[in-house]
Amino acid sequence: MNPTTTKKLLLTLLAWGIAVIVFFPIFWMVVTGFKTEVQAIAPPTLIFDPTLAGYNTVIERADYLKFALNSIVIAFGSTLLALLVAIPAAYSMAFLPTKRTRGTLLWMLSTKMLPPVGVLMPIYLLSRDLGLLDTRTGLIIIYMLMNLPIVVWMLYTFFKDVPKDILEAGRMDGARTFQEVVYLLLPLTLPGIASTGLLAVILSWNEAFWSLNLTTSDAAPLTTFIASFSSPEGLFWAKLSAASTLAIAPILIFGWMTQKQMVRGLTFGAVK
Amino acid sequence: MATLHLNNIVKDFGGTQVIKGVDLEVKDREFVVFVGPSGCGKSTLMRMIAGLESTTSGEIAIDGERVNEVGPADRGLAMVFQSYALYPHMSVEDNMGFSLRLAKVPKAERREKVLAAARILQLEPLLDRKPKALSGGQRQRVAIGRAIVRNPSIFLFDEPLSNLDAALRVQMRIELAQLHEELDATMIYVTHDQIEAMTMADKIVVLQDGVVEQIGSPMELYHHPRNRFVAGFIGSPKMNFLEVEVRGADAEGVEVALPGGDCRVPVAGDGVSAGDVVTLGIRPEHLALDEQGPLTGQIQVIERLGGVTSLYLEHGDSEWILVADGDVAHRVRDHVRFTFDPARAHLFTADGLALAHLERHPLVDIDRKENRASSASGGQR
Ligand SMILES: Nc1ncnc2c1ncn2[C@@H]1O[C@H](COP(=O)(O)OP(=O)(O)OP(=O)(O)O)[C@@H](O)[C@H]1O
Ligand SMILES: [Mg+2]
């Protein structure tokens, strides 16, 4: 074996190893969901009679569909709202930059470095006083704000890649700013906007800190659903696993279906 | 019907003046070419006319109306970009029809206008393609077609041919000139290419460092350059320059000292007197080999092109380029003598200004259209 083949083999093994380590907890969670409670705490084994008992109990005990619906509405709603706010912001930063544009972008990103718990009190009080506690609207707004820096930043980089000439040609053709954005910029950056949106959906879907602190029942998403099984029934591993599997299944399927979209680049034969 | 006036316009990019007070008048249906070295502000000037760049001071008027505050969408101009700037996600037909779509022109009428433009540019078979499936020349045509469909009052072209190969450039150059006649439109054209400028322009604007050096017909710039910069910039190969001393000036011209004897150049000698140092300028094609000539040089390089031969000569620290008709029997390192017709020479004062020729060249005011048989017969029909 020559050195490059050896190197390739080692790298492949390493990649597989990491993939297995990353994937194993999820795999184990799914498997545990099909066990009985007794099997779940017994010494780990892969050989057992699969049962749906765990899933049945979980679905019976809590209104899974209500939580799922909340998750969907909140994740997609906040993403849509974030895009609506971020597109004009990124447009002006990419095409009408000023001396402060870079600083603004960095500052926006720096807000992500703050631990959310640091602003728990003000946000909680604001939500309470505005009547947004335990409402979907409340979470939609919070998630929109939470994702905005990343969404603006990503859109900014995608917009920057659009040749200025194309937009100027549109202007010469008579396009107003709105038409320029709708007919030229958005179609040209659609893959980028889609992957930005998908990321925002996933981040919102998996968010637990704010949903646990700001919702109780009416607007509670799936992350709250999982949590509701973890505290009172901390030792019932099978049910907890079943609940977790149910909570992440939609987003896993969604991510798997759209992975091509997420990876697709921005390559167009635009300007020569 | 469209005229354009620039009145002392200035562009300031955050402290650096890039356009330093340009005045220009473009008549209806005129073909105006901006030339100048890279970075002199040609594109900036054109973008200011288009409205893509704001004007720091001065006034831009189209058909007599100030348009400084009018956005690019409303100036009624069309621009062809050097990069073509086609909309990559639209078919050729949609690219060409985009302006009409924005203007809410009904679909049937839109198609009709796009087809008419496509016919002129032979783009009909390509209407359904996306830009990335086109060759460079085809993309260029689509970009021009997009401009035609708008039926603009003025066309703006920013180096539209610079991405094409030499043969296609010649072809497109001729097509553009024909298009100008067919459309009877006012056109403003930026180029680096001397030949494009000389062959297409009614009027050439020579820019340097954001300042207009001279405006005139191609023949005027060639025969009567206003200063040393224009003299050196227009014409290829470049004009030869030699510092000489003035012997005297009178109504017949200015007498200067040359190594092989004095010579009288028929230019107005106001302001120069014996003893002044001036620059003699002679175009390479106006030098001729001559055993008795007053100038000498040693051949460094010979370029034999068949039709003409270029000799690169050196004498002391002066260098000369001489373009001779046909073949030349001389070899590299030969010493040759050469001469010139003083009537075709130019004199420049120490600050670079040309001394005016006593007689104007007869072809200076010739209309570009008279150079074309097609327009003459077209005019009669
Ligand atoms: N947005 C800008 N900000 C600052 N300076 C600029 C800007 N655009 C152009 N310039 C400067 O203005 C000058 C003129 O640029 P311009 O593009 O008009 O030159 P040009 O004559 O078209 O050159 P070329 O022949 O290379 O295309 C250049 O020195 C350029 O650096
Ligand atoms: Mg330019």
Keywords:
heterodimer; A: mainly alpha; MetI-like fold; 14 helices; 0% strand; B: 381 residues; OB fold (Dihydrolipoamide Acetyltransferase, E2P); six-stranded mixed beta sheet; disordered C terminus; binds adenosine-5'-triphosphate; binds magnesium ion
Q: In the residues of chain B, how many domains can be counted? A: 2
Tell me what portion of residues of chain B adopts beta-strand conformation: 25-35%
- Mean pLDDT figure of chain A: 87
CATH topology name of chain A? MetI-like fold
CATH architecture heading of chain A:
Orthogonal Bundle
Work out the oligomeric state of the chains in this entry.
heterodimer
Whole-Å distance between the termini of chain B? 21 Å
Shape type of chain B: elongated
In brief:
Chain A: The chain crosses the membrane at residues 9-31, 72-93, 105-126, 138-159, 180-205, 236-257. The complex is a heterodimer of chains A (272) and B (381). With 272 residues, chain A is mostly helical.
Topology (elements, then pairings):
The complex is a heterodimer of chains A (272) and B (381).
Chain A: H1 3-33, H2 37-41, H3 53-61, H4 64-95, H5 101-110, H6 120-129, H7 136-160, H8 164-172, H9 177-188, H10 190-206, H11 209-214, H12 222-230, H13 237-257, H14 259-263
Helix pairs in contact in A: 1-13, 3-13, 4-7, 4-10, 4-12, 7-10, 8-9, 12-13
Chain B: E1 4-13, E2 16-26, E3 31-35, H1 42-50, E4 57-62, E5 65-66, E6 77-80, H2 92-102, H3 107-120, H4 136-149, E7 154-158, H5 166-183, E8 186-190, H6 194-200, E9 203-208, E10 211-216, H7 218-223, H8 228-233, E11 240-250, E12 253-258, E13 261-265, E14 277-282, E15 287-289, E16 295-304, E17 308-315, E18 318-325, E19 335-340, E20 346-348, H9 373-380
Parallel strand pairs in B: 3-8, 3-9, 6-7, 7-8
Antiparallel strand pairs in B: 1-2, 1-4, 4-5, 9-10, 11-12, 11-14, 12-13, 14-20, 15-19, 16-17, 16-19, 17-18
Helix pairs in contact in B: 2-3, 2-4, 3-4
The structure holds adenosine-5'-triphosphate and magnesium ion (MG).
